[in-house]
């Protein structure tokens, strides 16, 4: 861009770009040592049966607290970790920690772990999962891996085969943030997902009376039922949203209305009441 063509725009724009690049650089450097400095931990958000309100398990959500920068949002540092090739060691730590912590919970609650496309394209990933299960003693059917549609974007990288080998371990797969990516429904018939997670944007839209959002939820629920999959609605924040989601036929719900992500001790405390109501349904 020419400096003559509106210097004001140029100067207003440039420092911001610089700041972003600087922030990236600082965060990336800090992230490189976050694991060894013990700055990561997991929080667990309850997943609840939509009909009965009883607890079925938890989703593990990664948290990074830097000593001076404070808490950094995963929406910021996960993409950074993917680009900086740090997602493999961090993702392995998440899997080991989640399996280890969930193995100590009472009852038969499940734990869901988010997995990046980058991790799935690593040939050693299936062995990492098998090892996390073996080391922790968590039975495979209590582990669920959440992947997004983006894993199917890169053709010829063997994502489908990797998912097949993961299923052979006896774990479950769910399709996260459904409807937000570039969906080709073909992979739903190729890969055995247990659950489709309906993105929060549809839940919010439906509760505001957006006809298209309601139509999409209905269609996804019908599709899931005919493929023998269940549905989880993400980001349910109010009683009204819960009622609507239940009426639309979603099997499970997750969101602040049922519980924010909890520290592991509190999650473990809740597993004493697996099968009991988290909230009146
Ligand atoms: P996600 O897997 O779709 O997780 C759901 C996100 O929605 C979480 O944000 C959760 O805290 C938030 N959430 C749950 N209920 C509500 C609600 O009622 N209202 C609102 N407004 N938000 C709600 P979080 O923890 O910030 O994580 C953001 C994303 O970062 C996750 O989205 C996931 O894609 C990614 N992520 C988190 N942990 C990991 C991880 O261990 N590995 C990988 N690869 N990605 C992770
Ligand atoms: Mg998720
Ligand atoms: Mg999600
Ligand atoms: Mg989401």
TrEMBL record:
Ranges for domain EAL: 24-275
Signal sequence, start to end: none
Protein name as annotated: Bifunctional diguanylate cyclase/phosphodiesterase
Full protein: residues contained: 505 to 785 of 785
